[in-house]
Amino acid sequence: MRMLCLAATFLAATAFGAFGQGTEVAFGQSHDASAPVEITSDSLQLDQAGGTALFQGTVRVGQGAMRLAADQVKVFYVAGQAGQQGAVERMEAEGNVTLSNGTEAAKARRAVYQVATGLVEMEGDVILTQGPNALSSQKLNIDLNRGTARLDGRVQTIFTPGSTSAPARSNP
Predict the structure, then answer these.
(1) CATH code for position 161
(2) Which of 6, 11, 19, 32 could disulfide-pair with 23, CB 3.0 to 4.6 Å?
(3) Mean of the pLDDT values across residues 80-90?
(4) 14 pairs with which residues across the strands?
(5) What is the pLDDT of residues 58-69, one digit of tens each?
């Protein structure tokens, strides 16, 4: 099972603070999907018949250097395999969602991680940061397998000239 995760590497390509509708950035470069996953929360509701596990209250998920924090995380298991390791279909994080890896982090209202495809979708007031650089948008799509991400919905940036981060690519 891989954790919903994030690693962002970027720098704005222009000094004007705003991109077009879509911006691509490097992402997920140091994610180790084979590392053990640890989840802690204030409570857990397990529904074996429905194939779900609901972690609530100060939820923390860790895998290697990657971290996820949220108010709640619901895990959906592949039909007929509830509770078996490696049988996770998707994870949905709600409320104050933060994904981080060292100095890189993304915040949003909601995130969904599709385990089989390695795709993560974050939405709702997304803020993506790496050190002193930041990007904001309404939606962030991450492909952990390719190590890329795409921001959509009125992308704006703040960056520090002279930063060692890789440039973002804007797609109008």
Answers:
(1) 2.60.450.10
(2) 19
(3) 62
(4) none
(5) 999 988 777 899
